[in-house]
Amino acid sequence: MELRHLRYFVTLAEQLHFGRAAELLNIVQPALSMQIKALEEELGVALFERAHRRVSLTDAGRLFLPEAERTLAQAAQARHVARLAALGTVGRVRLGFTSGAAHSGELAALARDLREKAPELLIEPLECHPAELLDLLGRDDLDLGIGLIWRETVPEGVALRALSSRPAQVALPEGDPLAARATVSVADLEGRPFIGYRGPGDVEGVALTRGVLGFSPEISCVAENPATAVCLAGAGFGVAIVHGALGAGAPGVVLREIADGAMALEINLLWRAGSERGRRLAALHGPS
């Protein structure tokens, strides 16, 4: 039994007229009659009664009709799912993100786009350190990543697209002499104790701060994420480099833009190079 046999049967059952059914199916009437007869012979029952140029369903035909309709509907759904899978717009999405992406609002924008454009996706978020995110993407343990990632640290096996770039800011405790200024310079920050960011391969937590400022600062303590670093700055443990989207910071803290000489902080969308699904998922969030 083939799907076309079921489609012919359902169309004839709806029309109860061989001529009209054949026209809708775009086949000649004798061919439709032969296909229906072949289906009845395969099933071993008569599905239609043919008398005095009238066609009606037999009891077997009436019972067979909803089963045939369900089978055709399931086949259509299977085709739909297969096509979505080929486009990468169905199933589980392992989405890695850094705290910087979350604070910037870019994570929320990405999730919103994925849900609106591919509602059948199941997004599984995983917070990662930037180095961990790159490692997981390279090992195909993530489908998509979004984070505050330096292009210089991205390996060849990972593709990326910039989503936004903002000047770095420094978190200062209230009462700090630099807090009275609208902006600060890199030179203003030399010799200041900094709060670093701990991560894989960076036990001292100096990599991000050094990359932004262009010099290796004194690290007074380390934090796991920008929100904690801001709180530590407010508690007087040092100053911290943060993304401009962190907003008002925390009580007892002011944020000031580093106006000259500092590297901007870029939020990037990332996927494994060569992954067609990753590329298609990335394309759902703006141009690829």
TrEMBL record:
Q: Does the keyword Oxidoreductase apply?
A: no
Cross-referenced Gene3D superfamilies, in alphabetical order? Periplasmic binding protein-like II (3.40.190.10), Winged helix-like DNA-binding domain superfamily/Winged helix DNA-binding domain (1.10.10.10)
Keywords for this entry?
DNA-binding, Transcription, Transcription regulation
Lineage, top-rank taxon, reads Bacteria
Q: One GO molecular function term?
A: DNA binding
InterPro entries according to UniProt? LysR_HTH_N, LysR_subst-bd, WH-like_DNA-bd_sf, WH_DNA-bd_sf
Q: Which residues form the HTH lysR-type domain?
A: 1-58
Q: Name one GO cellular component term.
A: protein-DNA complex
The record's comment on protein family reads: Belongs to the LysR transcriptional regulatory family.
What is the protein's given name?
DNA-binding transcriptional LysR family regulator
